[in-house]
Amino acid sequence: QVQLVESGGALVQPGGSLRLSCEASGDMFSINNMGWYRQAPGLEREMVAVINSGGSAIYADSVRGRFTISGDNAKTTLYLQMTSLKPEDTAVYYCNIKGRHRSLIGFDSWGQGTQVTVSP
């Protein structure tokens, strides 16, 4: 099993900053990509940022220039640095990792989410 645990969500004021962390554990022989997704009440889950094994990242238009996705060298921790936060960033943020176990069977793992609320 691959387990993901998000942390760092909080209540922050508009214009503030926050860093989310995702700790990964388990059998991760190889990783295809890692990403952050979010879901606001009444809306569909959307991609926020995804980074591949080579370190290349893509961002949603709504967060590009404000958010930065990164991981440590061991690829056991995924981060999302958020700056210039807006009320529309309010959502539950989920971590996702896709890869293969040592058996070469693929996995697609999700965390339970962490709440980010941006409000004055």
Quick structural gist:
This protein has 120 residues and is mainly beta.
What brief labels describe this structure?
four-stranded antiparallel beta sheet, 11 strands, mainly beta
Describe the structure.
A hairpin with a 6-residue loop joins strand 4 (about 30-40) and strand 5 (about 45-50). The strands form 2 sheets. Strands 2, 4, 5, 6, 9, 10 and 11 form a 7-stranded mixed sheet that branches. Strands 1-3-8-7 form a 4-stranded antiparallel sheet, with no helix packed on it. The protein is mostly beta strands. It is built from no helices and 11 strands.
Q: Main β-sheet, in a few words?
A: 7 strands, mixed
Mean pLDDT: 96
**What structural class do helix, strand and pairing data support?**
mainly beta
Question: Tally of extended strands?
Answer: 11
Strand content: over 45%
What is the succession of H and E elements? EEEEEEEEEEE
Shape: elongated
- Which stretches are low in confidence, meaning pLDDT under 50 for 5 or more residues running? none
Q: N- to C-terminal separation?
A: 40 Å
Number of helices: 0
